[in-house]
Amino acid sequence: MTPAPDLLAALEHFLRYELANELSGRSQYQARIAANLLVMLQREAQLAPALDRLDCCIAEATGLAPHDLWHELAVALRDGVVAPSEPLLKLLRQ
């Protein structure tokens, strides 16, 4: 079975270098947009496990629930409920 990242890469290559070159105007533009979306999906799939772990660390450090973490964190920082401590800033920079 071919791994999903390889399938996405093959589809991205086809859209960007084969199909888009056969098209023009809006259709060519849309094919390139689709290729860019596939690259974004590849990157998200690759980074998702590490980002999920980082979200858990931030939730644990702030006492916020992991669900809707980023909205809750923004509100908590704005309202002074959570202080921008150096450990939290380090996690956010990661």
Provide structural commentary.
By secondary structure, the chain is an all-alpha fold. The protein is built from 4 helices and no strands. Helix 1 packs antiparallel against helix 2. The protein is elongated and about 55 Å long. It starts with a helix and ends with a helix. The mean pLDDT is 93.
> What proportion of the residues form beta strands (DSSP E)?
under 5%
Question: What string, H for helix and E for strand, traces the elements in order?
Answer: HHHH
Average pLDDT taken over every residue: 93
Total strand segments: 0
Question: What's this, in brief?
Answer:
The chain has 94 residues and is an all-alpha fold. Helix content is 81%, strand content 0%.
